[in-house]
Structure formats: C-alpha cells, structure tokens
Write a structure and sequence with these properties.
It is a single chain. It is built from seven helices and eight strands, in the order E-H-E-E-H-E-H-E-H-E-E-H-E-H-H. By secondary structure, it is an alpha+beta fold. It folds into two domains: about 70 residues, BMC (bacterial microcompartment) domain (Alpha-Beta Plaits, 2-Layer Sandwich), CATH 3.30.70; about 110 residues, 2-Layer Sandwich (Alpha-Beta Plaits). The strands form two sheets. The protein has a four-stranded antiparallel sheet, sandwiched between helices. It has a four-stranded antiparallel sheet with strand order 6-7-5-8. Strand 6 and strand 7 form a beta hairpin. Helix 1 packs antiparallel against helix 2 and helix 4 packs across helix 5. The chain is globular and about 50 Å long. About 40% of the residues are buried.
C-alpha cells in the first residue's frame, strides 16, 4: 500500500467539491494528468460528496484546477484557488489544533468545504487571530466550521473579513463569544466532536 506524502502545501492550494462521486473521480484524474502537482488528495465525504485537493506551484495548480472545473461543471458544488495559502491553514487541514487561552472565540459555519477553507485563510491573514481548528464535512452534514481565538476586537475583525469574502449561499452562521465559559472552553479544548468527548468509537 502506497504511503501518502505529508500534507505540506506551498504556495498554492485548490479544492473542488462535487455532488457526484463518480464525476469527482473523473475530475481528479483529469487534474493530475494536466499538470505535475506536489500534493493530491481525493475522496468521499458526507453526505455523498467528493473532494479533490491539490497543492504545489501556482501555475501548475491553476492548470489542474481548470481541468477539474471543465471535467464536471454540472455537479460542481463549490471550489477555491488560493495562490498563497497561509501555513496555519495547511496545518489545520492536516489535523492540527491550536489551543490557546484567549478572550474570545469566533465561529464561522459554512455550507461547503471550500467556503470554510477560504474563510480560514482570509481570517488568519486579515486579523491577529489564532486559527484554532478547521472541521470539514464529515459529521457536519457536508458543512464546514472554522474556529478563531484572540482578543475580541481581533476576532470580530476576522469574522467581518470572512463575511465579506464569502457569497451569501456559502454562509450559514457566524458568532463571536466574547468570553467563553471556562467549563465549555475545557470541553472544546479536548475536542469539538461530541462523540469524541464521550469516547464513542468511530
């Protein structure tokens, strides 16, 4: 069984979300055939969607993205192209959680996975906030959630930036909690997944 490369994306990232799994595989194949890429990830997520993520030099990622968009436009839910993705976003996509005790918690809930990644990138680039976590699709009915922490004014600024960056159809809800209760903070520091807090098996 082949081992996947560690998720190190520099500088460009593209991600496509398809409502058809079959079409998603077709698009992924077209993308990797179009240009040499440093990173390729492709697979299913809930609820029955298919994600394709690629990373590498800007020109190559852009060419691959164009091939993916052309392969199955009728079942494309959403997509993003980040020519200079923030390193914190890459770390969060790799599953890292950055737990810091700060004054405020900001939450951005999106309708699609690409929208969540876009929000995370815009927020952490535009304001002095900590990117606590990104959760995508599975266990969320296909939605995305981004958690920011920091000073209240900085978290509010980050969420305002994300709101301006996203289209109306990509948005679900955004909230700022100026001072999270210590008990809830302790719980979320363990995991934002309810099942994980109760030691449910996957």
């Amino acid at each position: 069984m082949a081992d996947l490369k560690p998720l190190t994306i520099d500088p460009a990232l593209a991600l496509l979300e398809f409502s058809s799994i079959a079409a998603g595989v077709l698009a992924a194949d077209a993308m990797v055939k179009k240009a040499p890429l440093d990173i390729v990830r492709a697979g299913t997520v809930q609820p029955g969607r298919f994600l394709v993520l690629v990373g590498g030099p800007v020109a190559e990622v852009d060419e691959a993205l164009k091939a993916g968009l052309e392969a199955a436009p009728d079942v494309l839910n959403d997509h993003i192209f980040l020519p200079g993705v923030h390193p914190d976003v890459v770390r969060a996509l790799a599953g890292e959680r950055s737990i810091k005790t700060d004054d405020a918690l900001g939450i951005v809930e999106t309708a699609t996975v690409p929208a969540a990644i876009h929000a995370a990138d815009k927020g952490v680039k535009g304001a002095q906030v900590n990117l606590m976590e990104i959760r995508l699709a599975d266990g969320l009915g296909g939605k995305g959630i981004v958690f920011f922490t920091g000073l209240v004014s900085d978290v509010e600024a980050a969420l305002e930036i994300t709101d301006q960056a996203l289209e109306a159809k990509q948005k679900v809800r955004r909230v700022v909690i100026s001072r999270l209760h210590a008990d809830l903070a302790d719980v979320l520091q363990v995991s934002s997944r309810f099942g994980a807090q109760l030691n449910w098996r996957a």
